Amino acid sequence: MLSIAFHSIYKHPLPEGHRFPMIKYELLPEQLLHEGTVTQSDFHTPNMPNMRYIFGIHEKAYVNNLLNLTLDPRAARKIGFPLSAELVERELRIAQGTIWGCDQALQKGIAFNIAGGTHHAYSTHGEAFCLLNDQAIGAHYLLQNNLAKKILIVDLDVHQGNGTAEIFKNNDTVFTFSMHGKTNYPFKKEISDLDIALPDNTGDDEYLSILKETLPKLIDSHKPDFIFYLSGVDILASDKLGKLDCSIQGCKERDEYVLNLCYKLNIPVQCSMGGGYSPDIKIIIEAHANTYRAAKNIYF
């Protein structure tokens, strides 16, 4: 049985100009249920998190400004969404969904957050639609509770995980790996433990070859006992915010490769969805659904 964190507040209504990126959070679970990849019992509604895990990653003053809706207007503009109590609650529940997913992955091998992948959230501020860094918070939860000793974050979103890199830059227990578009946002990138910046128009063959050459070596050298996987589908050629040239089939093979590797090596993996901005919503849903289909085929 797949373990998937999902809450109705993930579908938080936004002003018209901001609604499109949120629609997938409503449509994806409907598609997975419709086709029989999951059942309703696979879904879990996350509660609000213990704030100690939020404060363990994010500066207290920043979090309190979010909670009190007193964020400086310039800082709020960097986030990209109109700041509201509903939006802050949504981010907190997403963080808890990833924490819950950590426990589920330890039990079952894999778990999903149908949102998350908020890798542009720094310790001191948010940006690019990311307020709180869910996988960083999940990593902190595992380490604080002695549930993992060495963690690998595999970020395959088309955009560099700049916030994640900043948060763990001086932490030897968390290895950050980001494979992203060289000329994509963020234009001023942070330094991950390993960054692979791909040139524009990188296609399936080159993308998969680099990944298959890199990931096993990382796992062998770092020896993680837990992996976070950010499975953004904005690597697609059709993505309006990406500059790579991968196909839906290539994206599917990427997910199958990562999850197969975790399964064969018996390393628990928590997956957060990440980005996907193709103009055709059907393409976004199909690409994201492939990640869940791969997990079901491999693990169950």
UniProtKB/TrEMBL annotation:
Keywords: Hydrolase. Pfam families: Hist_deacetyl. Residues 21-280 form the Histone deacetylase domain. CDD domains: HDAC_classIV. GO terms for molecular function: histone deacetylase activity; hydrolase activity. It comes from the Bacteria. The keyword Hydrolase applies. One of its GO terms (biological process) is epigenetic regulation of gene expression. The keyword Ribonucleoprotein does not apply. PANTHER family: HISTONE DEACETYLASE 12, HISTONE DEACETYLASE HDAC1-RELATED. Belongs to the histone deacetylase family. This is Histone deacetylase. It comes from Flavobacterium arcticum.
